[in-house]
Amino acid sequence: MLITKRRIRSLKSNIGNVVPGTKFVMGIKNIERYGDTLEHIGFTENLEIGETVLPMPQGSASEYNANGKYLKHKDQPKETIYKTREWTREQWAGRGQTETVTDFVEFSYKRYPRTFMEPPSIEFTIASTTNGDKLITAPVFEYNGNDSEFIHIINLFLELFGECQLFHENLDEIIKPPINRLNWEILPQGPIPWQQVSRIIMPIIDKAPKSNRPVILDRIETIENFNPDFRAFGKAGFGGYIVFGFEEKNLFIFESIKYGNATYIFDNNWEELSQKTKAEILDNDLHKARIVHRINWGDQIKELFNDLGIS
């Protein structure tokens, strides 16, 4: 079955009644038609079998898929939220003199409560049929009566490609390849001068709102001062994530430029982490620690390093 719409809102009106337990593979055929789009969302130009990416956001469906979204509760009283900003002011220096001082301050404001909806993190994989034709596929989906997840995957394809093919018969014809995730770009290991690192990091920071950039840069410089021996940068749907590794301590720090996030601390090995989905990485049971982006972030991260004997 082929769906060609901008988006769908109802499952029944587009594919009819679906029996719970039915398995589907959603995807597109003749992928060479979409060479530029596929490269833009994270695949290589070679389109090798097994390449797997979390698609780079291109619209509301793929943005939610990669980064989640917030549900505002306007029926509830507003709550107090805290935000850190760089502040430059004139400070009294004595003898009729003042001096310019720049530091970070935390201010509060009121907003409606929000519930964060975790990103579905649906990945796309280049697979093939038994006759050698290449496909872009989502993971095998078993319908359990929940329409919203089914609709999301279809809309993800429609947003990125303008079509979505539903395969639910002869699934054995689709060969499941070994997965090769392309979510990270790894820098050469070992000490790297900050000037070289900053040339890569600054374009990432520049994607953040201007008022947030000094705070983000300060967090990154704080971690860099402890001389990580490993750095990786998120690609495609992982864009905005930077990983700092201290391999002797088996410590990996995931930092994000997105405001409202946190710094995630892991003690897994990199080979294991790099092959996990975004949903798995952000799962509460996987990380060792989570440091919220608040004014005391610097004190907490330094305490973490001190406890591990990293100076």
Automatic annotation (TrEMBL):
It comes from the Archaea. This is Uncharacterized protein. The lineage of its organism: Archaea, Methanobacteriati, Methanobacteriota, Methanomada group, Methanobacteria.
